[in-house]
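Per your request, structure below.
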C-alpha cells in the first residue's frame, strides 16, 4: 500500500478493509473501501486536487467537512466534494479544472425540472447533526418516546467524537469523562438503538429551510431529495473551522485542524512528515499530540497570545516531547509553489502586530490551522425568521468542549419534550449550573506541591489548572482522591486516611485525561522509589531494562532511569503504565517519559526556501479574493457587505460565504469599524451546495441510481 497510510497506532486498531482500484487523471490507484476521494488521493501522495480558474494556483483539501469547496473534483464528469464523497471501484476521477461535461443535460431542462413532485413528511422533532449534542438530545427524547428524526451528513454518528483518541474531561457520571472520544461515540450510538421512536438518517444533509417551515434533506444513500415539516427543530450542526489570511494560505498541505484529525484518526492517512501548528487552544494542542501518536514530527506550535489558551495538561504533553511552543507569535507567510515547504513567523507586540526583525523561517510540509471555530447556525437563524420553533445545542449554540455539548444536548432534549406538551419535569437548576461549569474557561495555572515524601505509596497530581474534570476521584477504589462534587473544576486532592492507604492500583494513573497523575511507591526502596507514569505510545518503543529520559511537568529532562515494568490495566488497555526507578529527591517531580529524545525539522534541500510565494493572503477561498482587496474597499468607505460582493464576488462562491464572511467582518473590526455599522448580506436557502437534479427529484445520469 502507499507510504502515506498509518500501519500501526497506539490507540486505534488498523482494520482490514477491502482494497479497490480507481483512476486519477487516467492513472490507476488503490483505495480502501468506503473512504473518501480526498483521503484516497492523499494516501497515494496526491494533494493537488485542481487549480483555481482565476490565478491557476493549486488547490487541495482544507476543511474535510463539506464547509468549503476547495477540494472539488470531477467524479465521472460530475463535480463533487472530494472530502464528502466515497471513492467507488473503477471510478474515473480528475481535477475540476475547467467546466464539467454538460453534454448529457436533457434537451428540454424546463420539462425536466417540472417533473419534480415532493411529498412532505411531518415529524414532531427534527435534529440536524449527529454529534455529541444531537446524540444526547435524541437519547433524552428517545427515553420519553418522542418521535424524532435525527439526520447527519456522515456515514456514522458521533460528529467530531470519532476523531478524538484522547480521554475526555468533565464528569465521569454525566458525560463519560475518562473515556476516549471514539469510544463515547460508539456508546451513544449503541444506546440510541434502544429507542424505536428515534429514526436516524446517515449520509443525509439538511440543505435548506423554506418559508413554509419545510426542511429539505439530501439523502446521499438514495441520491434523492426529501422534505420534512417538523413541529420543533433542534440545530446541533456543530462548528466550522476559521480560516486565517496570510500569504500562501491556500497552498496544498495547509489544513484545518478537523481535516488533519479526519485524515489521521478517522482514515488512518499520514498527510505529513513535518507539521507546524498555528493556534494554541485545545484543538491545536490536541491535534499536535495526535500527530505525535501517528508518527508525525511536530516542528513547532505557534500562538499569538502570551500563553496558550488550551488546557495546560495538553500543552504539557507536547512539552514532554520537546515540541517548540512559541507564544506571542504570528504567521506571516507559507512558502511553496505546489505544496507548502516552510512558514515564516514573527513575534508580535501587545497589539498583536508583527515586530520587524523578529522573522524566522521553519521548514515543514504541513501547516495545521487551529485558530478557532464559528457556529454552523444558518438553520437556527432561518428557523427564527420563518417562525419555526427552534432550539440549538452544542457548538451551534456556543463554542465549548464536547463534554459541554453532550450535556447541553440533554438539556435541550428535555426542553423540547416540554414544548411539545410531554409530561416531564422542568430542567433542574443544577443541570444548568453544571452546564455552565462544563463550558467554563480554564483557570489560572497554579503551583504544584511536589515536596519530598517517603514511606508509602501515593499519587502525585501534576494538574495545576482548574478545569472541569473528575475521573481520578470516581475511579479510586479507596475513595482517597477528592474533588468538590458541587464544582468539579477544583483541583483533586489525595486524602489519606488512618484506616485507608493507597494500594498502588494505578487506576488514577491510567484514567487521567491529561496524563497528569503519576504514582510514587516508596514501600520497597526509600532511596530509589518506583514511579508509575502513563504513556500512550506503542509498547514496542519501550522495554523492561531500558533507561528512558524522564521529564518533569514542563518537559525538562530529569535524567535517564531504568524501566522496571510495563503494563496496562484491562479497563484502560490502551494506556501503558511504565514503572521506573527514580532517585527519591526526584520522584515527586517525575511527570512524563520522553520516548523520542527530540523532534528536529528535516534538513532543507537546496531549493527548499523560496524567495517569494506566488500567492496572496486569501480571504474568499472560492473566488480567491485577498484581504488586501477587502481592506481597500473598507478604507474607501464601504460599509455594506453586499457592495463588497458586487465589487469582488466575495461570499458568492460555492460555499456561500461560510469561510470568508467572518474574515470580512474581522477586517472591518481591525479597521475600527463597529459591526453595528456594517450591513450583512442576506442568507438564503439552499445553505449547502446541491445538484439541481437532486432538488428536482431526479437522479443524475451516470450516478449509481
Amino acid at each position: 500500500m502507499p507510504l502515506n497510510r498509518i500501519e500501526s497506532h497506539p490507540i486505534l486498531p488498523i482494520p482490514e478493509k477491502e482494497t479497490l482500484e480507481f483512476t486519477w487523471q487516467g492513472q490507476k490507484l488503490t483505495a480502501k473501501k468506503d473512504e473518501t476521494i480526498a483521503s484516497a488521493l492523499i494516501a497515494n501522495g496526491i494533494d493537488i486536487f485542481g487549480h483555481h480558474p482565476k490565478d491557476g494556483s493549486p488547490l487541495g483539501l482544507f476543511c474535510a467537512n463539506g464547509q468549503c469547496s476547495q477540494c472539488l473534483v470531477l467524479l465521472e464528469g460530475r463535480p463533487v466534494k472530494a472530502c464528502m464523497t466515497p471513492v467507488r471501484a473503477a471510478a474515473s476521477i480528475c481535477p475540476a479544472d475547467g467546466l464539467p461535461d454538460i453534454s448529457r443535460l436533457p434537451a428540454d431542462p424546463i420539462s425536466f425540472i417540472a417533473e419534480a413532485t415532493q411529498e412532505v413528511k411531518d415529524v414532531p422533532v427534527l435534529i440536524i447533526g449527529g454529534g455529541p449534542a444531537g446524540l444526547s438530545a435524541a437519547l433524552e427524547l428517545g427515553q420519553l418516546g418522542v418521535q424524532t428524526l435525527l439526520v447527519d451528513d456522515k456515514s456514522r454518528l458521533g460528529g467530531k467524537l470519532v476523531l478524538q483518541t484522547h480521554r475526555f474531561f468533565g464528569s465521569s457520571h454525566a458525560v463519560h469523562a475518562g473515556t476516549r472520544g471514539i469510544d463515547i461515540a460508539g456508546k451513544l450510538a449503541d444506546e440510541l438503538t434502544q429507542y424505536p421512536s428515534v429514526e436516524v438518517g446517515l449520509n443525509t444533509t439538511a440543505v435548506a429551510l423554506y418559508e413554509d417551515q419545510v426542511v429539505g434533506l439530501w439523502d446521499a444513500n438514495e441520491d434523492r431529495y426529501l422534505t420534512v415539516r417538523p413541529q420543533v427543530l433542534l440545530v446541533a450542526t456543530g462548528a466550522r473551522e476559521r480560516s486565517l489570511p496570510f500569504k500562501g494560505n491556500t497552498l496544498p498541505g495547509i489544513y484545518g485542524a478537523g481535516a488533519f484529525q479526519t485524515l489521521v484518526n478517522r482514515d488512518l492517512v499520514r498527510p505529513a512528515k513535518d507539521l507546524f501548528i498555528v493556534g494554541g487552544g485545545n484543538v491545536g494542542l490536541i491535534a499536535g499530540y495526535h500527530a505525535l501518536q501517528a508518527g508525525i514530527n511536530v516542528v513547532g506550535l505557534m500562538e499569538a497570545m502570551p500563553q496558550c489558551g488550551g488546557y495546560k495538561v495538553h500543552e504539557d504533553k507536547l512539552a514532554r516531547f520537546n515540541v517548540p511552543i512559541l507564544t506571542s507569535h504570528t504567521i506571516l507567510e507559507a512558502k511553496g509553489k505546489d505544496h507548502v515547504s516552510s512558514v515564516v513567523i514573527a513575534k508580535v507586540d501587545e497589539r498583536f502586530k508583527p515586530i520587524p526583525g523578529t522573522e524566522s523561517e521553519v521548514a515543514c510540509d504541513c501547516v495545521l490551522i487551529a485558530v478557532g471555530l464559528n457556529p454552523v447556525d444558518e438553520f437556527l437563524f432561518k428557523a427564527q425568521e420563518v417562525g419555526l420553533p427552534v432550539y440549538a445545542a452544542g457548538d451551534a449554540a456556543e463554542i465549548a468542549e464536547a463534554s459541554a455539548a453532550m450535556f447541553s444536548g440533554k438539556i435541550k432534549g428535555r426542553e423540547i419534550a416540554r414544548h411539545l406538551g410531554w409530561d416531564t419535569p422542568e430542567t433542574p437548576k443544577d443541570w444548568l449550573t453544571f452546564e455552565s461549569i462544563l463550558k467554563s474557561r480554564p483557570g489560572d495555572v497554579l503551583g504544584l506541591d511536589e515536596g519530598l515524601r517517603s514511606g508509602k505509596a501515593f499519587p502525585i497530581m501534576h494538574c495545576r489548572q482548574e478545569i472541569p474534570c473528575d475521573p481520578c476521584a470516581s475511579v479510586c477504589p479507596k475513595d482517597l482522591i477528592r474533588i468538590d462534587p458541587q464544582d468539579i473544576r477544583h483541583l483533586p486532592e489525595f486524602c489519606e486516611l488512618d484506616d485507608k492507604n493507597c494500594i498502588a492500583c494505578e487506576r488514577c494513573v491510567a484514567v487521567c485525561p491529561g496524563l497528569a497523575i503519576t504514582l510514587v511507591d516508596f514501600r520497597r526502596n526509600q532511596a530509589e522509589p518506583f514511579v508509575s507514569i502513563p504513556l500512550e505510545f506503542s509498547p514496542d518503543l519501550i522495554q523492561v531494562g531500558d533507561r528512558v529520559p524522564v521529564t518533569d511537568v514542563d518537559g525538562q529532562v530529569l535524567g535517564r532511569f531504568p524501566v522496571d515494568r510495563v503494563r496496562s490495566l484491562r479497563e484502560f488497555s490502551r494506556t501503558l503504565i511504565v514503572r521506573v526507578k527514580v532517585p527519591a529527591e526526584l520522584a515527586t517531580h517525575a511527570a512524563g517519559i520522553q520516548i523520542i529524545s527530540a523532534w528536529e525539522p528535516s534538513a532543507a534541500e537546496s531549493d527548499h526556501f523560496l524567495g517569494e510565494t506566488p500567492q496572496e493572503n486569501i480571504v474568499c477561498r472560492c473566488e480567491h479574493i485577498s484581504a488586501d482587496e477587502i481592506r481597500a474597499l473598507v478604507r474607501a468607505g464601504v460599509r455594506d457587505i453586499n457592495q463588497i460582493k458586487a465589487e469582488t464576488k466575495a461570499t458568492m462562491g460555492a460555499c456561500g460565504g461560510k469561510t470568508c464572511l467572518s474574515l470580512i467582518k474581522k477586517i472591518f473590526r481591525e479597521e475600527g469599524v463597529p459591526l453595528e455599522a456594517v450591513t450583512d448580506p442576506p442568507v438564503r436557502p439552499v445553505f449547502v451546495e446541491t445538484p439541481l437534479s437532486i432538488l428536482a427529484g431526479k437522479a443524475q445520469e451516470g450516478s449509481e441510481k
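The chain has four domains: 19-98+243-369, 120-239+375-438, 457-593, 618-677.

Regards,
D.
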